[in-house]
């Protein structure tokens, strides 16, 4: 009986230690991906300025690579200038001319990445807040539209 109680107390502690190690490994991998500009943001919710939050299908994402930014996100909100092509309502582009800056975030195990797209017809800035557990938020500032934010997760695109 005493042996069963001892085992019942030890097994959860072993699982917690391994879980903490896995969490630390994930945070380290995310930190490396943010520093190397090599990650994918998968959006799950859109938070338009002045409107209700919208749950998104699993296909919306922003892929950040060292030489390319691929964005496929919807847009909800007020546009100050309508696009000529109605299919251009969201953020759907591939960019090879952009600036990328990353820095540690305000909280422990968090990072900030700012991407400014330079080859669009207007200035577009993506401001990522990324946490060590893989969750992230994205604030999109577009010169022709109200700001919109997204909530989602970060996936590492290339593991070393």
In terms of quaternary structure, the protein is single chain
- For the record, the count of structural domains works out to 1
Mean pLDDT: 83
CATH topology: Lipocalin
- Main sheet, how many strands, which sense, barrel? 10 strands, antiparallel
At CATH level 2, the architecture is Beta Barrel
Overall geometry: globular
- Name of the top-level CATH class: Mainly Beta
Work out the radius of gyration.
Answer: 20 Å
List the secondary-structure elements in sequence, H or E.
HEEEEEEEEEE
User: Structural class given helices, strands, pairing?
Assistant: alpha+beta
- Distance between the amino and carboxyl termini: 47 Å
Overall number of strands: 10
Unreliable segments of 5+ consecutive residues: 2-18
Determine the fraction of residues in helical runs and give it as a percent range: 10-25%
Structure overview:
With 160 residues, the chain is α+β, with helices and mostly antiparallel strands. It has a single domain, classed as Lipocalin. The chain has one helix and ten strands. Strands 1, 2, 3, 4, 5, 6, 7, 8, 9 and 10 form a ten-stranded antiparallel β-sheet that branches. The termini are far apart.
Topology, please?
Blueprint: H1 2-35, E1 39-48, E2 54-55, E3 61-64, E4 69-73, E5 91-95, E6 98-104, E7 110-117, E8 124-131, E9 135-142, E10 148-156
Antiparallel strand pairs: 1-2, 1-3, 1-10, 3-4, 4-5, 6-7, 7-8, 8-9, 9-10
């Amino acid at each position: 009986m005493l042996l069963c109680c001892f085992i019942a107390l030890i097994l959860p502690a072993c699982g917690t230690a391994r879980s903490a190690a896995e969490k630390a490994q994930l945070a380290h991998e995310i930190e490396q991906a943010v520093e190397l500009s090599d990650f994918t943001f998968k959006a799950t919710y859109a938070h338009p300025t002045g409107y209700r939050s919208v749950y998104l299908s699993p296909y919306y994402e922003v892929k950040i690579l060292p030489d390319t930014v691929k964005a496929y996100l919807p847009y909800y909100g007020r546009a100050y200038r309508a696009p000529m092509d109605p299919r251009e309502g969201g953020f759907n582009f591939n960019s090879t001319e952009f600036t990328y800056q990353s820095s540690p975030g305000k909280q422990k195990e968090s990072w900030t990445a700012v991407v400014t797209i330079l080859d669009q017809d207007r200035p577009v800035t993506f401001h990522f807040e990324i946490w060590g557990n893989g969750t992230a938020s994205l604030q999109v500032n577009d010169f022709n539209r109200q700001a919109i934010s997204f909530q989602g997760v970060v996936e590492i695109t290339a593991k070393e």
